[in-house]
Predict the 3D structure of the following.
Amino acid sequence: MNSTVKAYFDAFGVGDVDGMLACLSDDVAHHVNEGQVRVGKAAFRGFCEHMNRCYRENLTDMVIFDAQDGTRAAAEFVVNGTYLQTDEGLPEAAGQTYRLPAGSFFSLKNGQITRVVTYYNLADWIRQVKG
């Protein structure tokens, strides 16, 4: 198991954005599910702050996969969340809960994450929060 990726998810689990940022390279490329690529730690921090306003999430059933040379890793998990505040372009938030399988893919260099790609089924999430 990749220790950097584990530290990243451990920080996520306790809401430690600075801990997540410590795992990232300065020029990290963050590929958001069905969104634009954001580059750099400042953009990643802004994304995390936005997510923390709109959603409360914890991850379960985590499995981390690691390439033998340590330059790639992946994780599969379940997102258990509550929709707290309406996110632009999405259904109205009213405290709905959701449960989604998801995955993340990572590139690493010198012990830091240089690329994060996260995927989940947005249509499934919308069905769950619309009720």
In short: The domain at 3-130 is CATH 3.10.450.50 (Nuclear Transport Factor 2; Chain: A,). The two ends are 37 Å apart (CA to CA).
